[in-house]
Write a structure and sequence with these properties.
This protein is an alpha+beta fold. Helices cover about 25% and strands about 25% of the residues.
Length: about 475
């Protein structure tokens, strides 16, 4: 049922490929920049109906950086060779999900209003742009300024599409490589010096004189560099990276890098240099000649193990490099780009909202919430109220999972049942095969989800899962 719909949907997007988003029986994606107008909590739509768990159809996005195989494999449909970058599950107006009922499909927002979050499957085959998102105050002021300037929402010079912030959390399903946060300047200087490219060393010199905030000056130097010297710098960096891929760690002082400044960086970590060389090669292949390849060296380069999360708060420079993961974000389109993109880069605005302070990458292991005979619950704690993401690992018995709004099964087969205040299934609950109606029901049926299928809970209600499998659960935050 749901898998057939998703399979048809996938074939449609990858055979037409005329729009970044497509949906079976839904018009193509609206122009980029459509505003998210509100952020109502789940249950915001006043339907007057009892809560039900209904099949949810997501919307696939065919961005060029997407993997042609990862999402089709999870959905259980054959790949076509075209990129499939994301599967959107929510009410975002750019690509709203649909709910299946016995009388046809209907917009999810009719049941739950405008959700404050968007849940995604994300599959990167090559690096996304370097980017930073504003905090709520910056977004509100920036949106008002763009509105006052009369910039259309689809104007390529527009910086703010809505007045909302856009924190994000990615949880790895496979090893997932990402860049996040300004790296310790000493480590960055060691890598830069190790490449032996004079123009690169000169561009990163502000890290020597101002370790705390020099990243902003480095970015300004790189992003405003004239085309010819920028191309020469990137070409020289790529050539140097080829020489250093797989370079062994230095074994003697004579093998180590020369100091980058009066005090000099600590001894070069050979793993840092080899990893940076590999990164440069990947970025240059995906974004030839882009000076963002050099700017990326400012950032922590991490690979998440499956189950680890990476939280992107406001003002943190970051980029995804490759891998498959579950992403949840506040419902906003506000992105300030800083390289690895053909799109407009507003350097002044980027640096105004960027936090240049060095920090570790905000990697988060899951926090155990519950372990019982029915399975386990894990959560990734985030300091925002827009969303909460929980993973349920079901091992056969009943597992109470709280009040989720969107469910996505990534393995196995589980059944979701609405329960009453006493934790028991609602009176008269019946088999999943029973038809779902549009009117009130006295016995909302459970719904069975298989790998790659998703569901919407139409009003805040306690849900119990049973079966064997893994399900990600998205809801507004506390």
């Amino acid at each position: 049922m749901a898998s057939i719909a998703i399979g048809y949907f996938l074939r449609e997007i990858v055979t037409r490929n005329t729009s970044p988003a497509a949906h079976v029986r839904v018009p193509p994606r609206a122009p980029e920049g459509t505003t998210v107008h509100s952020s109502a909590a789940a249950g915001g739509a006043d339907t007057g109906r009892r809560a039900r768990v209904l099949p949810l159809r997501g919307v696939l996005q065919g961005y060029a950086w997407g993997s042609p195989t990862a999402i089709p494999a999870l959905l259980g449909v054959p790949p076509t060779g075209d990129p499939v970058a994301e599967l959107w599950l929510g009410t975002h107006p750019v690509a709203p999900g649909l709910v299946e009922t016995a009388n046809g499909v209907r917009p999810a927002a009719e049941f739950v209003g405008a959700l404050p979050f968007l849940l995604k499957l994300l599959a990167a085959d090559r690096a996304l742009s370097l980017q930073v998102h504003p905090d709520a105050t910056q977004a509100g002021a920036g949106f008002a300024a763009d509105e006052a300037a009369g910039l259309a929402l689809n104007d390529p010079l527009r910086r703010y599409r809505d007045p909302n912030h856009k924190p994000e959390l990615i949880v790895a399903l496979t090893p997932f490589r990402a860049l996040a946060g300004i790296r310790d300047p000493a480590r960055t200087l060691a890598v830069v010096t190790g490449f032996g490219v004079p123009a690169l060393t000169a561009a990163f010199a502000p890290l020597v004189t101002d370790p705390r905030a020099g990243a902003s000056a480095v970015l300004r130097t790189l992003l405003t560099m004239p085309a010819a010297p920028a191309k020469a710098l990137v070409d020289d960096l790529v050539a140097a990276a080829r020489r250093h891929v797989g370079a062994p760690a230095p074994t003697s002082p004579a093998d180590r890098a020369e100091p980058a400044g009066p005090a000099g960086p600590p001894d070069l970590d050979g793993d840092d240099l080899s990893r940076a060389a590999d990164l440069v090669g990947r970025l240059a292949a995906a974004h030839p000649g882009d000076v963002g390849t050099a700017a990326a060296l400012l950032l922590n380069d991490v690979t998440l193990a499956p189950g680890e999360g990476l939280f992107q708060p406001a003002r943190l420079l970051h980029a995804y490099v490759d891998g498959l993961g579950i992403e949840i974000m506040a419902a906003s389109d506000n992105v300030l780009r800083g390289g690895l993109t053909p799109k407009h880069i507003d350097v002044d605005e980027l640096l105004r909202i960027l936090d240049p302070t060095p920090s570790d990458a905000p990697v988060q292991p899951p926090r155990p919430l519950l372990t019982g005979p029915g399975g386990e619950l894990h959560r990734w704690d985030v300091p925002v109220v827009d969303f909460a993401l929980t993973e349920a690992v079901c091992t056969g018995g009943a597992l109470a999972v709280g009040r989720p709004t969107v469910l996505l099964a990534v393995d196995g087969q589980v059944t979701a049942t609405i329960t009453g205040p006493d934790g028991d299934p609602v009176a008269g609950a019946c088999t999943p095969e029973r038809a779902v109606t549009d009117g009130d029901v006295d016995d909302p049926p459970p719904l069975t989800l298989r790998r790659g299928e998703s569901a919407l809970v139409t009003a805040p209600s306690d849900v119990v899962l049973s079966g064997h499998g893994r399900v990600f659960l998205a809801a507004p935050g506390d």
